[in-house]
Design goal:
Elements (H helix, E strand, L loop, with lengths): L1 H30 L1 E3 H8 L3 H13 L3 E4 L2 E4 L2 E2 L5 H4 L4 H12 L7 E4 L3 H10 L6 E5 L2 H7 L5 E5 L3 E3 L4 E3 L1 H8 L3 E6 L3 E3 L3 E4 L2 H12 L1 E7 L7 E2 L2 E4 L6 E4 L5 H9 L3 E4 L5
Parallel strand pairs: 4-14, 5-6, 5-10, 6-7, 10-13, 13-16, 16-17
Antiparallel strand pairs: 1-3, 2-3, 8-9, 11-12, 12-15
Helix pairs in contact: 2-3, 5-6, 6-7, 8-9
Length: about 270
């Protein structure tokens, strides 16, 4: 009788473990991340039991454990054509650009990176400030901001990449290194707790890395589709002193994990 009960109990436990793992996989597929707190509450088990589940799934390559939970194994963010990317996630880009603009003060000297989100950001700020100086290597950003009578725009030249509508190379980086800004706004392809901030463009990545060194404060802008994605060139690790700005569609599970890891992350709301 005892043996029969033990075997049946063991089967029940195995079924419970498999069920938990299946639900964790589903949560990762839906949201890209799970937290220990939410899983413990949902399953009615201890935090330690959840951590063992996450460890087992990490060994299978399903996820990467981080402080407070786990993220789905980072996927590669494909590099699309500029003309295609400019129309992707326009609403989200608008949301996060409005929020990021609130981090600028009149009289600031800032740097703006290149990219399709950078163009949306430039449109938002061009009529918002009475006195602003902007350094950029994006011809598109320059063309937008040069329309403003209250923004002094400095275009940093070098080799021109027509596909990305931006300047890059030794001359660009050298010019930037001779400058200093209060805030640099960076627009990467991917952001991941395990892989950091990354971009797909080798040449422009060198310029982005230079921007990271000349600013007192770094603000990273990325729509929610870029979170827990990785790309070819790693720019830097995620850092508590940086600010990460995204749109309201970022799942709460990812937002909570970033906060749990002492990262300053802001979610916007649509203003259009």
């Amino acid at each position: 009788m005892f043996v029969w009960y033990y075997v049946e109990y063991g089967v029940d436990i195995l079924m419970l473990v498999n069920e938990r793992h299946s639900k964790i996989r589903a949560g990762l597929e839906k949201n890209g991340a799970v937290t220990v707190a939410e899983l413990s509450k949902a399953f009615g088990v201890s935090d330690e039991t959840v951590r063992r589940d996450l460890l087992a799934l990490e060994r299978e390559g399903v996820l990467s454990r981080v402080h407070g939970g786990a993220i789905a194994a980072a996927t590669l963010k494909p590099a699309g054509e500029f003309s295609v990317r400019i129309d992707e996630h326009r609403r989200e880009k608008n949301e996060l650009s409005h929020l990021a603009a609130e981090l600028i003060e009149d009289g600031d000297i800032i740097a703006i990176d290149a990219g399709t989100t950078a163009l949306e950001f430039a449109e938002i700020i061009k009529d918002k400030f009475k006195n602003l100086t902007v350094i950029t290597h994006s011809l598109g950003v320059f063309n937008i901001l040069s329309q403003s009578d209250t923004i002094q725009t400095v275009l940093v030249g070098g080799s021109y990449d027509k596909g990305e509508d931006a300047f890059w190379g030794h001359l660009t980086a050298q010019s930037l290194r001779s400058l200093h800004v209060a805030k640099a706004f960076i627009f990467p392809t991917g952001i991941s707790l395990s892989c950091g901030v990354s971009d797909f463009h080798l040449a422009l990545a060198d310029v982005q890395n230079t921007l990271l060194t000349i600013a007192d404060k770094i603000i990273v802008l990325a729509d929610s589709s870029k979170f827990e994605k990785t790309s070819l060139c790693k720019l830097c690790d995620l850092k508590p002193e940086h600010t990460y700005v995204t749109d309201k569609n970022l799942p709460d599970s990812i937002f909570d994990l970033y906060r749990e890891n002492n990262l300053m992350i802001l979610k916007g709301k649509c203003l259009k």
